[in-house]
Write a structure and sequence with these properties.
Elements lengths: L10 E7 L6 H14 L4 E5 L13 E2 L6 H8 L3 H14 L1 H9 L5 E5 L5 H4 L3 H11 L2 E10 L6 H18 L3 E6 L4 H4 L7 H5 L5 H7 L3 H4 L2 H14 L5 E2 L5 H15 L11 H6 L7 H9 L6
Parallel strand pairs: 1-4, 1-5, 2-3, 2-4, 5-6, 6-7
Helix pairs in contact: 2-3, 3-6, 7-12
C-alpha cells in the first residue's frame, strides 16, 4: 500500500444544550471523565461565552475570542442580546474555531453550549456553525437536557415538550432528549400524576390536558395547550432518557443512545464488535429490562 495514502479519521461530537440550570456543564464534566475511562480520545469545547463556572478545562474556549461581558460593555447590550451577538460573532469567525479544532488530536468532541433556548428554537447562528462542521466531516448529534422536576407540573412538562420539539426541528441533527437530575425524581414523585415511563415515552397527553382542566388558572390556556399537545403528538418525535450523572450505569445507557445517534457505534471505537452494535438496536431490550434499568433506580422503594 502506498505510504502516502491518507486515511480520513472519523470525527464525532455531541452538542449539549438545555435551559439554564439543567446541568449541562456538570454533564459535560462527568461524561468527559466517563469517556476517558473507556479510553476514548475525547475533549471538551466550551462555546458558552458566559460560562465562568466550568468544572473542567476546555481544550478550546470561545471566551478567548469573545465574552458576554465584552459584548455588554462595548455595545450597551443586555445579557441575552449580548449572548446573541457573541454567537453571531462566532459564526462570522468560524475559521477561528475550525483552525483550533484542526490542531486537536481528539476525534470525539463534547460541545458545552449556552442555556438560552432561543439559540436552538429559532435563532440560526448555532445551526449554521454546526452545519459547517458537518461539511468538514464531523458526525454530530444534539443532547438536550431537561430537568426531571418538570414532570411534576403538567404545564411545565408541556412547555418542555414544545421546546424540545422545536429544537429538534430547528437544529436539524440527530437528537437525544434527556431527563437530567433523575436522582431527584424521588423528591417529586408525590406530585407526579403518572409513572415515570409516561413522561419518558410521552404517552397519551390528553391525560395531562384533563388534569389541568380542574385548575382555574389554566382554563384560559386550554386551546393553546391543546394546540401544543396536538403538535407534539403529530410529529411523534419526542421521548426522554433519564440520567443521573453520578451513576455509571446511567451514563453507560445514555452513551449507547448517543453513539447510535451520531454514528459512533458504527465507526472506530473502543468496543468494535457486532454484539455492541446490536445492543444499540431498537428492540434489543425487553420492556421489563428497560423498566429495571431506566426507571426503578429513581423510584422510592
Amino acid at each position: 500500500m502506498d505510504s502516502k495514502l491518507k486515511v480520513k479519521i472519523q470525527l464525532f461530537g455531541q452538542l449539549v444544550i438545555g435551559p439554564p440550570g439543567s446541568g449541562k456543564t456538570t454533564y459535560c464534566h462527568k461524561m468527559f471523565e466517563f469517556y476517558k475511562e473507556l479510553q476514548r480520545n475525547v475533549s471538551i469545547i466550551n462555546l458558552d461565552p458566559g460560562n465562568e463556572n466550568m468544572q473542567y478545562t476546555p481544550e478550546i474556549d470561545v471566551m478567548e475570542l469573545i465574552t458576554v461581558e465584552d459584548a455588554m460593555k462595548h455595545f450597551d447590550l443586555g445579557p441575552n442580546g449580548a449572548l446573541m451577538y457573541c454567537m453571531e460573532f462566532l459564526e462570522k469567525n468560524f475559521e477561528w474555531l475550525l483552525k483550533k479544532m484542526e490542531k486537536s488530536s481528539a476525534n470525539y468532541i463534547i460541545f458545552d453550549l449556552p442555556g438560552q433556548v432561543e439559540l436552538y428554537t429559532h435563532h440560526q447562528a448555532m445551526r449554521n456553525i454546526f452545519q459547517k462542521l458537518e461539511s468538514y466531516g464531523y458526525r454530530l448529534c444534539t443532547v438536550n437536557l431537561i430537568e426531571s422536576h418538570y414532570c411534576s407540573e403538567p404545564h411545565k412538562f408541556i412547555s418542555a415538550l414544545l421546546l424540545s420539539l422545536h429544537a429538534m426541528l430547528n437544529m436539524g441533527l440527530p437528537h437525544v432528549n434527556v431527563l437530567s437530575k433523575a436522582d431527584q425524581i424521588k423528591e417529586h414523585e408525590g406530585k407526579m400524576l403518572f409513572t415515570i415511563d409516561y413522561y419518558t415515552e410521552v404517552l397519551d397527553l390528553q391525560y395531562l390536558l384533563d388534569s389541568m382542566e380542574t385548575k382555574p388558572e389554566f382554563k384560559k390556556y386550554k386551546k393553546l395547550n391543546e394546540a401544543i399537545v396536538s403538535l407534539v403528538e403529530g410529529y411523534n418525535l419526542v421521548s426522554f432518557q433519564p440520567l443521573d450523572v453520578n451513576r455509571t450505569e446511567s451514563l453507560a445507557r445514555l452513551r449507547k443512545l448517543i453513539d447510535k445517534a451520531n454514528g459512533y457505534v458504527f465507526g472506530d471505537k473502543e468496543e468494535q464488535n457486532i454484539n455492541t452494535m446490536l445492543a444499540c438496536a431498537i428492540g434489543a431490550e425487553s420492556s421489563n429490562e428497560k423498566y429495571v434499568n431506566d426507571y426503578q433506580p429513581y423510584l422510592r422503594e
